[in-house]
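6-hydroxymethylpterin diphosphokinase MptE-like domain-containing protein: structure, please.
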Amino acid sequence: MTVLNRNLAAIRLKQPELAEKLQHSQTGAAYRGIASAKTGEPVPLFASGQALHSLYNPAREAERAVTAAAGFMLFCGLGNGIHIKTFLDKYPQSFCAITESDYESFKQLLSLIDYTELLSDNRIFLLPPYTDNTFETAFTAAYLPALHGTFGYYVLRTWSEYYKAQIKDLPEKIEHALEKIKADFSVQVHFGKIWLRNIFFNLRLASFVKPAYPQSDTTRTALILGAGPSLEAGLSLLKKKRQQYTVFCTDTAFPAVCANGITPEFFIAIDPQHISYQHTIGVIPKETIGIFDLSAQTAGARRFYENGNTFFFTAGGHPLVQTAALFSPFPPLTTGSGTVAVAAYHAAQALGYRHIECSGMDFAYTGGKAYSRGTYLSMQFAGSAAYTCPQEHSFVRLMFRTESYSERTTQGITYRTPLLDSYRAAFEAEKHSIIRWKQADFQKFPYTEFLISFTESLKQNDRNTVISLLPALAWCKAHRKGNLTDMELVSEFISEYTDS
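Here you go.
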């Protein structure tokens, strides 16, 4: 077996897609070959003859150069790997990722030096070349702050000199990816614990029911109802043409829709926050089918269960939800945008609806109003209203708590905010889905068996099981007190949420 094939075989064990990409790439011509350092290590030589490392003592050079500590280090430039080995020897609890200039040069290096010992190290991730359009996505998937901790990156000096023109935008790419990681991490810090609680409570509830694929008339038009101000006019039109529509009602719009005498065919909820239970406080029509993401607030799903309604759980993108869905299937439903409107739209598509319309999807304070009348906020603000602080005052505070801008429309002055604009953009970008639900997706969940398997994997520190708990670990990293480690605290939470 050639050196290249040995290296590709080692990569294929952990990253088969990357190995396949390298296998089918051309071999580059950036390197002339290798030379032996005085201390015996192979050193790659560029086509110009320049050595990538010291030809005297590469190990000593690496010890002097690689001094910064980090929980996760991105190495730009593979070289002969001595700088990476030095880092991992110095910081054995750390992890690292490696990127190269392009697939061709990467493959050429793999044909020159045997990296199998380095490649078999579970602390090392290989990323696509930084010039590849998948680099940022792969980087954000590899670096997990809740698991890895601090971040740093090291650019091999001679490598950066050789590729000087190509790496001009490398720092910008890294920073852009880090911004995405920070944003995702901040969401995990905020919701990590409540997601964990909801998921385990909902998995238990899922074991009490045998869900069935919902039969509905897909020749009708699916109507997605949001809670924006335009819902009021939309409901008036809906009453006149009710038989033309199958109504998919988002949780926020539900009280207003029911108050208008309309019974939605479907109710959709993905919000994990406790406050969202208020959407289901009133009378729930028996005919309405509930669709709940497994990470959604469990109180709403329990209300449907206790009311005798048909309902089922769906599997969104939370890693623990995905782990549960691999154990026993749930209907998939994309929730990455965090927007229930997108989830409702996808649910209609998953059931086979081809004609879909929307109402109440303002993503703006249309006519100076925050929500349609009849939502839980209307009731909440009305209940707390006083002579010196009327209901309108509460809505004004809600609308103008962040930067906004206005425009004059046929409904009067409409206010917009960057956040609402981002929701609109996410809805338009992500509303089309190719997911179609199947009968096999609807199964009674074997909760006890799953819990036994999951806790056993957790005891063995199984990597996939640990990754499924990353959002909860992020919460613990930000809120932990006392002497418990993040994982010990998460384990305590799991015991609390699963104690029957």
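Notes: The radius of gyration is 27 Å.
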